[in-house]
Structure formats: structure tokens, C-alpha cells
Amino acid sequence: xxxxxxxxxxxxxxxxxxxxxxxxxxxxxxxxxxxxxxxxxxxxxxxxxxxxxxxxxxxxxxxxxxxxxxxxxxxxxxxxxxxxxxxxxxxxxxxxxxxxxxxxxxxxxxxxxxxxxxxxxxxxxxxxxxxxxxxxxxxxxxxxxxxxxxxxxxxxxxxxxxxxxxxxxxxx
Amino acid sequence: xxxxxxxxxxxxxxxxxxxxxxxxxxxxxxxxxxxxxxxxxxxxxxxxxxxxxxxxxxxxxxxxxxxxxxxxxxxxxxxxxxxxxxxxxxxxxxxxxxxxxxxxxxxxxxxxxxxxxxxxxxxxxxxxxxxxxxxxxxxxxxxxxxxxxxxxxxxxxxxxxxxxxxxxxxxxxxxxxxxxxxxxxxxxxxxxxxxxxxxxxxxxxxxxxxxxxxxxxxxxxxxxxxxxxxxxxxxxxxxxxxxxxxxxxxxxxxxxxxxxxxxxx
Lengths: 172, 265
Prior knowledge:
Order of helices and strands of chain A: HHHHHH
Structural class of chain B: alpha+beta
Helix content of chain A: 55-70%
Structural class of chain A: mainly alpha
Strand order of the largest sheet of chain B: 1-2-5-4-3-12
Number of strands of chain A: 0
CATH topology of chain A: Arp2/3 complex 21 kDa subunit ARPC3
Distance between the termini of chain A: 21 Å
Shape of chain A: globular
Helix content of chain B: 25-40%
Low-confidence stretches of chain B: none
Radius of gyration of chain B: 23 Å
CATH class of chain A: Mainly Alpha
Oligomer: heterodimer
CATH architecture of chain A: Orthogonal Bundle
Distance between the termini of chain B: 45 Å
Strand content of chain B: 25-35%
Radius of gyration of chain A: 16 Å
CATH superfamily of the largest domain in chain B: Rod shape-determining protein MreC, domain 1
Number of helices of chain B: 4
Number of domains of chain B: 2
């Protein structure tokens, strides 16, 4: 990944965090809120592969961990694992299915939330398993499924190198 | 490698070895983020109102526009009056709790709730007062009706309050004739669990639970916390199973008071 791509990705993560802590925090369905910080590693895994997915998952997770009162590093761990897994698994799948990114985001977000709750419980935060997990999984998965298309486009822009530009009048 | 790094960070933070560093970085991040959040909310609210107004404007006749404008003005006035009344009522109920003997001698900082839970896995609120105003870690927080929670994180200008419904919350409470129990949170919007009530102890639905304030307790004694909503005797069990409902209105709470209380050591 080029230095320019790293800077762009960090800007995307910062803006996503701001979006999460402002607009999305006010959207509550039965008390549960969407969580786009899990969507970033999923989109990065889809666009760039397992290494990029893991890298974005770690960075986005650490950024989220700075602002939530849960174990520091837990979001980073879950983001890294999910980003890597999505990149590794989706690489071998035919992607020409309409809504492929949304389906992957939906499934991977559900897994990410459950993984977060289970790992949190292992770390002593047993109350993570006592929240309305089905509701949180549903809200986060559906929201990320809806937002997957724009997220993939944004990450594709972030990862693009200058040589990826479409020449004037030409098609790629 | 990133997985190992994450696990290392979690372990070091959990053991407290780098907690000073992580809480410092968290405090810095929160100080940077808070004005950004206020700015974004400040920008988005007028835009939302502008688009709402623009959509209405083009679709109305001149006469209707005048009438609509009048209705909107009246509605705004009505909404503003209602909002002011609600705000007044909330502050009035908040101030009423200061009349409790247990709190009369304590210094309190009135704060506005700026954000509800920032995580799906923690029942917390963020308030607009921090270390600069004397808010510190462990300070009890009360609201209209009773105990709201405890400060678990404070920056220069904001603080995070763990609500009594959070799964990590445990409060020593007293009821009846000097009976004691533990009141544990079970997650947002879920009943509080009343623990350590021996099966022989008399307790009834509707009974008031107040902070016990025992030696070393996290809260001063006598703050109303919750009312018992259900009691069950389990055959063969040493303790009763009981649940309670918080007295403070935790959903949509707008104002709280942070009590500057250093504990009863």
C-alpha cells in the first residue's frame, strides 16, 4: 500500500469514526445502534484482500477503542480477524453476484458482533452476553449490509494508486 | 502480527501496566473528538431544518403559505414552550433530590447529557462536565428520581458515566429494617438484579432500595436507587431471586448532578 493510500485510509477511518459518534449514535432501534467501524475492515477485505482488511480492521478498531468504555484493544482484535477473514474467504468467490458486497457485509458484521461479545466475555466482561445480542446483531448487520456499497467504493478510492487512473477518453 | 499486537494491548491494559498511557491517549482523543462532534451536530441540525423548509416551500399556494407559516410559527412556539417546560421540570426534579439529608452537605456539579451509550455493549452516558469542573473518577451521579451511576472516565471537559443498569454496575443497597443486598445491572432496558437477599429476609414488591454507604462504599448512604418489582423464593436456594426498577429516568435523561464525594474510608 502506498503512502498516499495509507493517508487516505486514515482519513476515511477518522471520518467514519466521526459519523459513528454523531449521526449513527442518534439512530437507535430498540436501543441498538449501527456500527460502521466493523464495516470498514469488511469493505477493505473485499477491495484489497486479507492484509489490507486486517490492517484497516486494526486501525479502525484502535480508533473506536479510544472512545468506548470497553476493553482497550478488543475492537482492534475483532476488526483484524474479521478484515483478514473477509479478504481471505472472498478472494476465491465469484463476485459478479448482484449485492455481493452487501451479503458479505451482512454476514461478516453479524459474526463480528458475536465475536466481540464472546471475546469480551472471555476477558471478564460477561455482561456482553447479557445484552439483547440478537437485536444488536440484526441492527449492525442490516445497517452495514445497506452501507456496504458506498463503503466499498470509498475504500476502492482510498486504496487506488495514481496508475489506476482511467486515461482520458479511455476505458478500463 | 496485528492479532498478537491486539492481544498484547488488551493484556497490558487489563493488567493495568499501561492503563495510565491508554487513559491518557483516550482522554486526548476525547478532548479532540468532543468539539468535532459538537461542530458536526451543529452543522447537521440547521441543514436538516433547511431541507425540510425548502421541500414545503415549493409545493404551497401563496395563501396556504401564509397559513402554513402561521401554523409553523405557532407550532414552533408551542414546541419551544413544551421543551422549556420539560427542561424546567427535569431541572426541578433534579434539584429536588438535593433536599435529601445525605446529599445536603455534598458539593454537586450540574451537567447536561450530551450523548447516550456510545457502545452497544455498555450502558453509559456522556456529560458536558469534566476535570476542569471538578468531576473525577468514581464520583456518584444522581438524576431526577435517584441514583444514575458513577463516573468511570473523565477528560478535561467531558465525562463518561456508567449507568446503574450496566452489566458492570454493582451497588450496595439497604432496605427494610437495615437489611442489605447487592443491586447489579443486567444491561440497558433490563431489570436490575437484587442479589444476596437471604430466603428468610422479608422483602416485598414496591420496597425502596437506597444506597447503604457502608465503610469503603462507592456511594454515600441514603440515595434512592430502585424499587423492588418482583420477588421469588427458589426451593432449596439460600437466596431469594428479586428484580428492581431504577427510580431515575435513565432513558432520554437530559440533566444530572455529579456529587463530589471521595468515599467513606
